[in-house]
Amino acid sequence: MMRKITLFFIACVFNAWCVSAQTVFFSEDFGTGCSTASLATSFGWTVSNTGTNDPGANRWYVSATENGNAVGACGSQCGSNRTLHLGANFFTIDGGASYYESTPFFCPGFFPCSETNKRIESPVINCAGYSSITLDFQYLENGEANDDQATLHYFDGNNWLFLHNLNKTSGICSPLGTWSAFSINLPPSADNNPYVKIGINWTNDADGLGSDPSFAIDNIQLSALTPLPVELLYFNGNQNNNQIALNWETATEINNDYFIVERSDDGSTFYPITKVEGFGNSSTNIHYEFIDKIIKQSYYYYRLKQVDFNGTFDYSDVILIKFIFKNPDQGILIPNPTTGITTLQFQSELNDEHTIVLYNQLSQQLKLTSYRAYNGTNSLPFDFSYLNEGIYYLHIIRNKTSISTQKLIIY
């Protein structure tokens, strides 16, 4: 059966985001099951006569009497993977991609003649919103030179246009045929066209010289280069006092729902810290910013997750921001809240003695630690797991002056 799907593959690079992707927007694999002698018209396809068709003319079927196989495999019959194929309508009805070719001696008279000129046409395919469209499929074919053959055609909404004379594929698999891959770019008139059809025209005369297989096709796909939701010009950040300011700008937006700003302590594991609504659709530059006020360490990694309206998302490049505390001795506790194990991290511009004092909410001193700080980042681990759950205060004292107080939460 026919199915429509959307898949994204990275196709090019533009700064932090790619600006286009390969989208498979139409797919037809004809389903599974034998369905012997089922006419293609029962599957939503249409047959048009393109010339003389004798009483014994061949017909288009969808069934697994000609089984769909992998590229490079020989043709086979009586499977379960259905294909669209041209088969006989006399002697054997739908024997797979095996056609009836009458001979002048017996036709007309003993047997019906078999001249066939029939084009099988897909349902209408809506290509609106897509450009640079590529048609891909798998097929096998033989016949007789230019007398018995399949040709590929395309409907632009007004006229049927010739695309390609498909090559014979029998090779070492004669007379069963060899499954082969085929790809072609559709004309520009298919771009943004809601009325596209794909057609295969089969022609055979009645001279008795043709050879099986006739023609079979499977796994038809249309794909296109389409823009991703956002063209990102830049994403950067810098320290703003004791905060980090993140800025980014887009050049174009298509169905842009929102951004998620993600942060990481180690550059590996990221977690979301805020959601910023997107502009939706825009062809002008849009500027965004976010202020990260919760700073607990000297380095942070950031990235953007951009999400469009149908849930498709992409990530920006990762940026690293180095943070320098404006008050050199201002400290942070990591983690906080904690079950007891934590590390006091602070900056110092002096090699000097510091005193760390822990108080409870009643201002009762619970612990006193002396520590010689060094110029730069200092890390002092603590184990407070013996404390009851609650709120405590850690004072940093230098030269008998309290320079910082950190609230500690034990849970």
Structure explained in plain terms:
With about 400 residues, the protein is mainly beta. It has 3 domains: about 20-225, Jelly Rolls (Sandwich), CATH 2.60.120; about 230-320, Immunoglobulin-like; about 330-410, Immunoglobulin-like. The chain is about 0% helix and about 55% strand. It contains no helices and 29 strands. It has strands at about 1-5, 10, 20-30, 45-50, 60-65, 85, 90, 90-95, 115-120, 130-145, 150-155, 160-165, 180-185, 195-205, 210-225, 230-240, 245-265, 270-280, 285-290, 300-310, 315, 320, 330-335, 340-350, 350-360, 365-375, 375-385, 390-400, 400-410. Strands 1, 2, 3, 5, 6, 10, 13 and 15 form an 8-stranded antiparallel β-sheet that branches. Strands 16, 17, 18, 19, 20, 21 and 22 form a 7-stranded antiparallel β-sheet that branches. A 5-stranded antiparallel β-sheet has the order 4-9-14-11-12, with no helix packed on it. A hairpin with a 1-residue loop joins strand 7 (about 90) and strand 8. The two termini are about 60 Å apart. The relative contact order is 0.12.
Structure summary:
0% of the residues lie in helices and 54% in strands. By secondary structure, the protein is mainly beta.
Please give the structural blueprint.
Elements: E1 2-3, E2 8-10, E3 20-28, E4 46-49, E5 59-63, E6 83-87, E7 89-90, E8 92-93, E9 116-121, E10 131-143, E11 149-155, E12 160-165, E13 180-185, E14 197-204, E15 211-227, E16 230-240, E17 243-264, E18 270-282, E19 286-292, E20 299-308, E21 313-315, E22 319-322, E23 331-334, E24 341-348, E25 352-359, E26 365-373, E27 376-383, E28 390-398, E29 401-410
Antiparallel strand pairs: 1-3, 2-3, 3-15, 4-9, 5-6, 6-15, 7-8, 9-14, 10-13, 10-15, 11-12, 11-14, 16-17, 17-18, 17-19, 17-20, 20-21, 20-22, 23-24, 24-27, 25-26, 25-28, 28-29
